Amino acid sequence: MDVRRAVLDAAIEIIATDGPDQVSMREVARRAGVSHQAPYHHFTDRAGIFAAISEEGFRVFTAEFRSALDGASDSLTDCLSAYVRFALAHKGHFKVMFRSDICGVTTHEATREAADAAYLALLDLAALAGNAPAGVDAVVLPVWLWSQAHGLATLLVDGPLAAKLPPELQIETLVDEVARFAAERLSAPQQATKP
């Protein structure tokens, strides 16, 4: 048995279903089916577990986001959708990765490096987005995408949005339509302001 993997998987499950505050070394050990001391052989404490989850999450996100960039027919739409789909598929990771109090980017070098690589993937979007309006520099477009995608992802993962949707509307369809709507608004010609 890979104890380290079992501990991480147990913690990710707890975070996805009950939230990060419910993670304890003892509960992680119980859910992983290992002795209560086993997690300490791989992680010093909860902070180590959270940092490892964040690192893994950033690495998976980067791979999925870069895959969306490489195969994008419409880079803004495809990348916004990829971001939200990552959050929905990896809720346990997502709930830790962007919490500065627990994610470990300031305390664990490998986690910081993984987070930096994810940010660089977002910055690469600007170079590929041929439909970006004139004047948008290399940082503004990715930050705009990040804020739009993160807001939608958070509303679906942690917020009330999923419960408010009509039953016939699939979340996948909503994600695609919101991404398309956002990309169209960004690439639309700027309206002249009236005096």
Structural features, described:
With 195 residues, the protein is mainly α. It has 2 domains: 1-43, Arc Repressor Mutant, subunit A (Orthogonal Bundle), CATH 1.10.10; 54-187, Tetracycline Repressor, domain 2, CATH 1.10.357.10. It is 67% helix and 0% strand. Helix 1 (3-18) packs across helix 5, helix 3 (46-70) packs parallel to helix 6 (109-128) and helix 4 (75-89) runs antiparallel to helix 9. The model has no long low-confidence stretch (mean pLDDT 88).
N- and C-termini, Cα separation: 70 Å
> Can you summarize the main beta sheet?
none
Question: Superfamily at the CATH H level of the largest domain?
Answer: Tetracycline Repressor, domain 2
Into which percentage range does the β-strand content fall? under 5%
Rg from C-alpha positions?
Answer: 19 Å
Q: Helix amount, in percent?
A: 55-70%
Low confidence ranges: none
Q: Could you give the count of β-strands?
A: 0
Total helix count?
9
Task: Give me the CATH architecture of the largest domain, please.
Answer: Orthogonal Bundle
Number of domains: 2
Q: Using the coordinates above, name the CATH class of the largest domain.
A: Mainly Alpha
Principal-axis shape: globular
- Here the CATH topology of the largest domain equals Tetracycline Repressor, domain 2
Class computed from helices, strands and strand pairing:
mainly alpha
The averaged pLDDT comes out at: 88
H/E element sequence: HHHHHHHHH
Explain briefly what this protein structure is:
This protein is mainly alpha-helical and 195 residues long. Helix content is 67%, strand content 0%. It has 2 domains: 1-43, Arc Repressor Mutant, subunit A (Orthogonal Bundle), CATH 1.10.10.60; 54-187, Tetracycline Repressor, domain 2 (Orthogonal Bundle).
